């Protein structure tokens, strides 16, 4: 891409410079907090009588996307984790949530809104969870977490949970716990409209592809290239902390394509009319709310919130933020059905 085309592309987005600055600031403002939620060996209250414990599917027993959807049954009971959240006093009595502030229509700061408040589909869900646990939808401390820091932020106690378009995977189930899925998507290719790239196929040969560090996109590309399902000449060495950085690299002509969740890619295509999705989704993935492995009561509570949210709230949020890019009658336009573990 020459300099003129790069400038035209940037103008087409209408704000990428500001978003790139915010992306950099997000890295600088990931704050460290004391570890307030370390719990081991605790008995947890659940929704069923006589049941005092439970755990999500182990990574070594997770084999497919259906297994990844399985989670603990819903409950409104408090346990040690929720008690710790509620025990915070004064201005600190908030739910601490890791989010994205750079993903258009998912979690982003709207420069045209008063105070540049965080908005988007994920942000709506966070407010609903805070309302249920603390009785105030605004009792939230948002923390901008890069893609590559989502799991460490949970494990280190920097956040109570991450709501950041985070795919449930078998590997991640060995590190954190997940709620029931709240969104279905799949990996897709994003490239300039003028590009000869047709999708996730041989047209990626000798092309440079950008992914976010620690993302399911990079894992998929590496695995497929290693086994010969992707051309060996495909360059996947470009990884970035935040997924939006890939769009900037694409606009500057530093890479030929981006691979990310189709739901995020569609929003990026809405930001920049010079790029488009190429081909169909080539994976099936589900987003979940991520929490600490031993935060069983919090997982159950979020799952109860999601039961109510699917009945009232989810569709309104989808129509507000995502229907324009994903469609009102598409597969993602309905929340995925939960699958609860037996005897949980």
List the helices and strands and how they pair.
Layout: H1 3-13, H2 16-28, H3 65-68, E1 70-71, H4 80-86, E2 95-99, E3 102-103, E4 107-109, E5 118-119, H5 121-134, E6 140-144, H6 150-155, E7 161-162, H7 170-173, E8 177-178, E9 183-185, E10 187-192, E11 208-212, H8 216-226, E12 235-240, H9 244-251, E13 257-261, H10 262-271, E14 275-278, E15 285-287, E16 290-291, H11 296-311, H12 314-321, H13 323-326, E17 339-340
Parallel strand pairs: 1-17, 2-6, 2-7, 11-12, 11-13
Antiparallel strand pairs: 3-4, 4-5, 8-16, 9-15, 10-13, 10-14
Helix pairs in contact: 5-11
Could you describe the 3D structure shown?
Mean pLDDT is 84; it is low at 1-55. The chain is of the alpha/beta class and 344 residues long. The chain has helices at residues 3-13, 16-28, 65-68, 80-86, 121-134, 150-155, 170-173, 216-226, 244-251, 262-271, 296-311, 314-321, 323-326, and strands spanning 70-71, 95-99, 102-103, 107-109, 118-119, 140-144, 161-162, 177-178, 183-185, 187-192, 208-212, 235-240, 257-261, 275-278, 285-287, 290-291, 339-340. The strands form six sheets. A five-stranded mixed beta sheet has the order 12-11-13-10-14, sandwiched between helices. A three-stranded parallel beta sheet has the order 6-2-7. It has a three-stranded antiparallel beta sheet with strand order 3-4-5.
């Amino acid at each position: 891409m020459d300099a003129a085309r790069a400038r035209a592309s940037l103008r087409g987005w209408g704000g990428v410079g500001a978003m790139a600055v915010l992306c950099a600031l997000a890295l600088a403002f990931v704050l460290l907090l004391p570890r307030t939620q370390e719990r081991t060996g605790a008995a947890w209250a659940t929704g069923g009588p006589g049941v005092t414990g439970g755990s999500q599917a182990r990574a070594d027993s997770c084999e497919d996307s259906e297994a990844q959807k399985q989670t603990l049954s819903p409950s409104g009971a408090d346990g040690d984790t929720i008690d710790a959240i509620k025990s915070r006093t004064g201005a600190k009595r908030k739910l601490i949530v890791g989010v994205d502030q750079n993903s258009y229509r998912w979690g982003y700061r709207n420069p045209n809104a008063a105070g540049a408040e965080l908005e988007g589909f994920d942000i709506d869900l966070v407010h609903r969870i805070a309302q249920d646990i603390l009785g105030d939808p605004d009792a939230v401390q948002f923390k901008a977490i890069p893609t590559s820091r989502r799991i460490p932020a949970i494990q280190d106690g920097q956040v109570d949970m991450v709501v950041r378009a985070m795919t449930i995977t078998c590997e991640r189930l060995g590190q954190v716990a997940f709620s029931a899925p709240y969104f279905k998507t799949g990996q897709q290719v994003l490239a300039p409209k003028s590009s000869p790239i047709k999708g996730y196929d041989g047209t990626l040969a000798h092309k440079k592809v950008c992914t976010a560090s620690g993302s399911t996109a990079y894992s998929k590309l590496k695995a497929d290239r290693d086994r010969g399902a992707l051309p060996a000449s495909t360059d996947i060495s470009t990884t970035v902390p935040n997924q939006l950085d890939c769009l900037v690299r694409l606009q500057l002509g530093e890479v030929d394509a981006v691979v990310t969740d189709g739901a995020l890619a569609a929003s990026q295509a809405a930001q920049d009319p010079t790029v488009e999705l190429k081909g169909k989704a080539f994976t099936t993935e589900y987003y979940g709310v991520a929490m600490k492995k031993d935060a069983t009561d919090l997982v159950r509570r979020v799952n109860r919130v999601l039961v109510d949210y699917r009945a009232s709230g989810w569709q309104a949020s989808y129509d507000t933020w995502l229907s324009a890019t994903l469609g009102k009658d598409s597969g993602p336009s309905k929340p995925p059905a939960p699958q609860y573990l037996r005897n949980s």
